[in-house]
Fold this sequence. Notes:
Elements: H1 3-12, E1 39-40, H2 70-84, E2 96-109, E3 112-119, E4 137-141, E5 145-146, E6 153-161, E7 165-166, E8 171-172, E9 174-183, E10 185-186, E11 190-191
Parallel strand pairs: 1-2, 4-9
Antiparallel strand pairs: 2-3, 2-6, 3-4, 3-5, 6-9, 7-8, 10-11
Amino acid sequence: MLKPCLLLFALLVPMLAPASDYRVGDRLPAAKGSAKGFKEIMWDDLMPKGWDPMAAFKGIDLNKLQDSDPRAAELLASVRKEWDKAPVEPALNGQRIRIPGFVVPLERKGDDVIEFLLVPYFGACVHVPPPPSNQVIHVVPAKPVKGMRTMETFWVSGTINLQGGDSGMGVYAYRIAAERVEPYQVNQGKKR
């Protein structure tokens, strides 16, 4: 569903130098197995059925816009305004969930991360444009996470709430009080 968003991302910003095996726009697959008391969800579950993040692009041929084109800047500002107020999925409020994503540390104490954003694809929030607000989760872990680096992959498990805000790195529509923050793993425990 967000594939065209990634096209805009690729057209409007420079490529992020890969710090891992991921490229800008890469998403994580779901795991097979138990979420141990948490409902495992994926990023599309955070968007209400029928909401189209690409509605702001209707009738626009992105291939005809150059980075320096003032229309590209206007389009980006218009999309950002719409995406900052993206609708949430009310049924998730108060649910115990587990979701994989890429991290953007927000606050550190030494080597410990005490607050971060979780985003659906590699490169999100590091450059413009951040994803729609309903695709950004503000995470406050119960315990600081040691040595977390930008765009590393983690599973976050905790209670999700419809609590939005602006982190300075992006507008978020959800917040998780994380009980667990674990390195992202699939296929019988092999870290990707």
